[in-house]
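Deviations from the work plan: none for this task. Representative record:
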Amino acid sequence: MSCCHNPIHCILPPYILDRMAESDDPKVRAIAVAAIARSASLRATRTTLAQMPAMAAIPSAVGKKERLVYDLKNRGSSFLPGTLVRREGGAKSKDPAVNEAYDYSGLTYDFYLKLFNRNSLDDRGMTLISSVHVARKYNNAFWNGEQMAYGDGDGVIFTRFTKSIDVVGHELTHGVVTHTCNLDYKNESGALNEHFADVFGSLIKQWKKKQTAAKADWLIGPDIMAPGAKAKALRTFKDEPAYTGDPYLGDDPQPKHLKDKYTGGDDSGGVHINSGIPNHAFFLVATTIGGNAWDKAGRIWYRTMLALNQKSDFNQMVSMSTQSAATLFGNNSPEHKAVIKAWKTVGF
Amino acid sequence: MDIRKLRFRVSGGFAGVIRGTEVDGSALDAGERRALLAHAHDGSARDSHARDAQVYAFEMDTSDGPVRIEFDDNTLPEDLAALVDRLSAASGPIKGK
Ligand SMILES: [Zn+2]
């Protein structure tokens, strides 16, 4: 005999719950998603939700900024999310990783809301879920399709991944990409996915620090490098390597021109490698236009991100960003010309 | 099936660094060999929703020919975790191919 412990799930058939989970009313969505989530085992639920981004977005019950931070206590990612240690409005923790995940995810939420009128990753108030202390001495951070997961680093090469605003902004922007153009995570479309994550990760940091394009460091991950690393950052938008001859990292593999594009199969077809090409183009656009990069270059790129699709490649990125610049600032405007020139400089 | 040579590569992750190492089959202990053979037909087992997960590739020269299997942080089988830790520690930066 089956026993239903969830009255809503008992009464409503799954397709109604699915439709409720996509409702514009945050209260309705919250009830539906909670009902669905309770109705199955964690793994089964995650599998179902992962197939439907609209459902995977656990909506905030209030439809505004809502953050949850979990401590995974050094267990593996199969145990995500872990133990809830801080929720929206909750007291500061003694653990810096918890506070960084909380503060920087809030900063990212504010950035997208104030500059682009975007209500969280899905534009429908999705709760921002972070887990810290993932695995042991884990030199990585990732977005699993539903939430952020941050390692502590080994203390030699990397320190905790929550320490860098641009890392947190990068991971959350993967969530924005998932809920917009949802670029396939391989080859050129995957490199564009990484590119948008780096661009907005960097812009969130510049916005927080009130830095103009001329003053910004244009580095990704400078705050997560530990004393044992020779490299001072993982990536740079500038036309120079971020590091060379690092005993752990080797040489920076990122090209800054199309002629040097990586064509091998590692890193899902070089998603973190070939992002260097559009990254450098964005840097050229932002520094040519001048002022705050988020004001104009950021707007052109945000509009472009919304206009692309799963299969978009570099050529579509070039034409769509050029078109976005013309739409926002006018044909032959300095901004439009800056975009055309930047893409030409990197080989398009 | 006998494993003669194992080439291990880690790529992806937030850092996007490619690292790897190569060991003779004789350098694998019985448990490691058993785990690899148990997953010899897994092919590319990747979580399509994960972004910035590290990718672990095992290329083996075996008595039955070449075998390649691939996992990421979210799909790595538990019985290969200790081997991944050991090979990761022995890996150095390499050029992507
Ligand atoms: Zn990424």
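The pocket of zinc ion is lined by residues A 170, 174, 194, 197; B 14, 51-52 (CB under 6 Å).
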